[in-house]
Amino acid sequence: MHLIMLLTALVLAWCLRSTDSETTGCWRERWQRTLKQFLLPPLLLLTTAIAIIWMGPHGQMVWLWEGWFSYGLALGFWVWTIVIGLKLAWESWCLYQWVRGQPTTVLNGLTARLLDLPTLDIAQIGFWQPELVISRPLLTVLDEPHLEAVLLHEQAHHYYRDTFWFFWLGWLRRLASGLPQTGRLWQELLILREIRADRWAAQRTDNLLLAEALLVVVSHPSALTEDYCAAFSRVVPPLTGAAPRKDRLNQRIEALLTEPELSSDVGCWSWIWLGLPLLPLLAIPFHQG
Fold first, then answer.
1. How confident is the model over 41-55, as pLDDT tens digits?
2. What is the DSSP string of 235-269?
């Protein structure tokens, strides 16, 4: 029975990822669709494994060996999951400690860490309380109005706690790397995250200034990895072709130059789908050891 639960969860996770999500509509609608398709499969696998571990290797099984086999698979899956999370946390912590060792400067009332990088980079690095980092060349390339617009974009990442939430999303990305469309959904979440920060900043500054700064910054390759930061210049992953780069840059520019969206903010009821991965836990009270 436990093995059937595992196989059912795996098939459902695969099917949920096999359907293409639409990339039309306002960014709020796209965010909801993409996040749902990204989160549900790995969460379903995790809760199914928890249910099997909780119920243990004993019970009414179809085959005598099934109990320990399914229990071992579920336990091994969670051990692998924890190892991935610890590795990601260690790498993030090491980068954060390195950043905290860099000299500081004050820009428009914000404390930032100066990085000796040849690229044009500005980003938030850390967890719940990230550090603002900026490369020295960026201070000479952008004038004060454009720099202020870029700083507002980074304030938006801090406001939404993007570094914290995308740490956990990045953990689930590694966990579900074998499922279909994981890479595409991850890149969609990244571009929607940047569009959200752009829109937040555009409400507090001239959107044309922000668009002009974006064109300047993304014309240079970034030295910061997407896994551990929320960066203004992040429009595409490294080592991709020119066509996808142009497409994602155009999405951000168009979102900045269009009128604000009229759709209302997403309410709490729209997150009710997060309860679906909890369904495997309902089997625990009915288990007979």
1. 999 999 999 888 887
2. SS-TT--HHHHHHHHHHHHHHHHSPPP-SPPPPGG
